[in-house]
């Protein structure tokens, strides 16, 4: 049986490709992305991750059993740990944690994080993990692709540390846990009648991911 995630990804293939092969991603891969775009993105991504961790906390609340509660809690901690990369890079640019935390959220950051939180608040844990999945699984796919591309981990690429983080074992493990979690919750909750709504949640989240890259490119606030 194909996993629910694979089915969603293939039914939203055009939107998925626009996300994982966005010009921002290609620029990370070959090192041509402008430094201001990357910095703008990374500060917003820190703010994104804090709200995303809160979405996992909704998962803790919505968990149907203790196993899922533990997994959601572990996911929340993994997302909070991911912010170390952000704070380390920001510190290298002279930006303190206080400066990052006092930056206003961009509209793209608000749109994506509140969309995911609302999907979880309104629905059950399956709706929530479907809304969360493009984030974790998509970045793992992007990290692997860029690391394999030749220019990605080249010493000359200023974004090699970023690529290494998402291509690394730690993050790949977070993505695998997320896929396993979707399959466990699908076994509990998925019915044929629910699929169209789940696909809509997934597709919207994927489109919001692409908008997030675009916000970085455009330096949009
Ligand atoms: C916008 C966004 N999506 C996914 C990830 C991966 O955790 C991230 N850091 N930021």
From TrEMBL:
GO cellular component, one term: cytosol
Organism domain of life: Bacteria
A GO molecular-function annotation: thiaminase activity
Pathway the protein acts in: Cofactor biosynthesis; thiamine diphosphate biosynthesis
Keywords assigned by UniProt, alphabetized: Hydrolase, Thiamine biosynthesis
Alphabetized CDD domains for the sequence: TenA_C_ScTHI20-like
The name this protein goes by in its record: Aminopyrimidine aminohydrolase
Pfam families: TENA_THI-4 (PF03070)
Broad class of enzyme this protein falls into: hydrolase
Residue ranges annotated for the Thiaminase-2/PQQC domain, each copy included: 15-218
Swiss-Prot/TrEMBL catalytic activity: 4-amino-5-aminomethyl-2-methylpyrimidine + H2O = 4-amino-5-hydroxymethyl-2-methylpyrimidine + NH4(+); thiamine + H2O = 5-(2-hydroxyethyl)-4-methylthiazole + 4-amino-5-hydroxymethyl-2-methylpyrimidine + H(+)
InterPro entries hit by this protein: Haem_Oase-like_multi-hlx (IPR016084), Thiaminase-2/PQQC (IPR004305), Thiaminase_II (IPR027574), Thiamine_Salvage_TenA (IPR050967)
EC number(s) stated in the UniProt entry for this protein: 3.5.99.2
Assigned protein family: Belongs to the TenA family.
Top-level taxonomy: Bacteria, Pseudomonadati, Pseudomonadota, Alphaproteobacteria, Hyphomicrobiales
BP GO annotations: thiamine biosynthetic process
Keyword Kinase among record annotations: no
UniProt xrefs under Gene3D superfamilies: Heme oxygenase-like
Task performed by this protein: Catalyzes an amino-pyrimidine hydrolysis reaction at the C5' of the pyrimidine moiety of thiamine compounds, a reaction that is part of a thiamine salvage pathway.
């Amino acid at each position: 049986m194909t996993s629910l995630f694979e089915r969603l990804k293939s039914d939203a293939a055009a939107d998925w490709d626009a996300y994982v092969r966005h010009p921002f991603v290609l620029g990370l891969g070959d090192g041509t992305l402008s430094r201001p775009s990357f910095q703008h993105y990374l500060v917003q991504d820190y703010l994104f991750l804090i709200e995303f961790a809160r979405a996992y906390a909704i998962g803790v609340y919505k968990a149907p059993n203790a196993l899922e509660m533990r997994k959601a809690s572990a996911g929340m901690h993994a997302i909070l740990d991911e912010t170390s990369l952000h704070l380390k890079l920001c510190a290298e640019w002279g930006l303190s944690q206080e400066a990052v935390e006092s930056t206003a959220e961009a509209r793209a950051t608000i749109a994506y994080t509140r969309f995911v939180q609302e999907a979880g608040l309104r629905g059950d844990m399956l709706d929530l993990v479907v809304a969360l999945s493009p984030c974790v699984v998509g970045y793992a796919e992007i990290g692997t692709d860029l690391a394999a591309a030749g220019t990605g981990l080249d010493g000359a690429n200023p974004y090699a540390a970023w690529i290494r983080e998402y291509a690394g074992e730690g993050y790949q493990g977070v993505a695998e846990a997320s896929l396993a979690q979707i399959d466990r919750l699908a076994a509990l909750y998925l019915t044929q009648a629910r699929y169209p709504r789940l696909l809509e949640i997934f597709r919207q989240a994927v489109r919001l991911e692409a908008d997030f890259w675009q916000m970085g490119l455009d330096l949009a606030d």
